[in-house]
Amino acid sequence: xxxKISVFWFRRDLRIEDNHGLYEALxxxxxxxxxxxxxxxxxxxxxxKADARVEFILNAIKDLQDKLIAIGSSIQVFHASPLExxxxxxxxxxxxxxxxxxxxxxxxxxxxxxxxxxxxxxGIQFSTFKDQVIFEKDEVLSGQNTxxxxxxxxxxxxxxxxAQNPIQVYPSExxxxxxxxxxxxxxLESLGFEKAGLSFxxxxxxxxxxxxxxxxxxxxxxxxxxxxxxxxxFGTISIRSLVNQAVGISETWLxxxxxxxxxxxxxFHFPHVSEGHAFRKEYDRMDWRNNxxxxxxxxxxxxxxxxxxxxxxxxxxxxxxxxxxxxxVASFLVKHLLIDWRWGEAYFAAKLLDFDFAANNGGWQxxxxxxxxxxxxxxxxxPTLQTQKFDKELAYIRKWVPEFQELxxxxxxxxxxxxxxxxxxxxxxxxxx
Length: 433
Known about the structure:
The protein has 433 residues and is of the alpha/beta class. It has helices at 20-26, 40-43, 52-70, 82-92, 106-122, 151-164, 207-211, 213-216, 229-234, 239-246, 251-269, 292-300, 306-318, 323-336, 341-351, 357-368, 383-390, 395-400, 416-432, and strands at 4-10, 32-38, 76-79, 94-101, 125-129.
């Protein structure tokens, strides 16, 4: 007879500590087999074999493996479709239940629905839990029971709800109801990838940095941000632990964590943003120039605007871009070059180590003026003024665009005043239709 087991399916929650779904699985009556699935449907969409995110995931899985081996277990890793992986598991074990944490993206919903249907046909319990956000779905609604589409009132209600509902942690690290198995992990090469050569930030953030965040966060030359976004993206740290750390120390840093919940809330309530549409659908009527040579100049950091080029070169080199600079380069692409925000969204999706669809889509729609809580379309960032305000000593620019004062550096790709007038006219025409 096959051994009866429960399965915990790691996805965006690559940690043993304070993991809600894992905690529930380990309380089940059956020994738990942890698994991870490298899904070809996701991997084949990546544009380079040196995608650092695959390397980051594999490193996180190795950390999990070390911790599991220490308690006599192991994680089983598949390189297959989820359905194929579960079919293989069901041939080896008598699966009683599958546990995992919620994933809110469009493909994830389809994938989980398929596995849930398969499990039901097999008589297997399929359970998912809230883990990567503090509040989700209908948990934070307006007084009219409608979803918020503006951040400030959402954050106010979010904080009220937090005060009424203290964060519950899930001490999964103290439970040990694991299946005793030994498995080998795949190599990066066996998955079809290679090392990217990027360095990954640590998981810790010191209280002094959080305390100074409000005053320092907008200056890209300063080491004043936590760089935890990649860890939040893949769940190598718990959002609950970070919120507990932020409360009472920095309202500004706490707000950054609330923005994550806000964008997941938008994704849940307004699924059309997952289908290539502007949140405000009237902005789908925009006539974009979409000049491919200018887009390439933007991508490669050759626009002739040093602050824009510095940001793009930082992104291309490190997989990271400072948040203030993200707003500047996004505004430039959309409003100076009149290039569809979806082109920029896709480029960031391919390059950002911390890429998360909800936040990336929300940020680009904000910059384009077509999203929820968006910067109005007539706000056009002036790169020169942004430089004077946030990189006055040119330290960030000198780091990434050392040749910006040389004759070899390109002339500005477009005049700011001309570009501003042009984009305002384009928006006006679209909205007048």
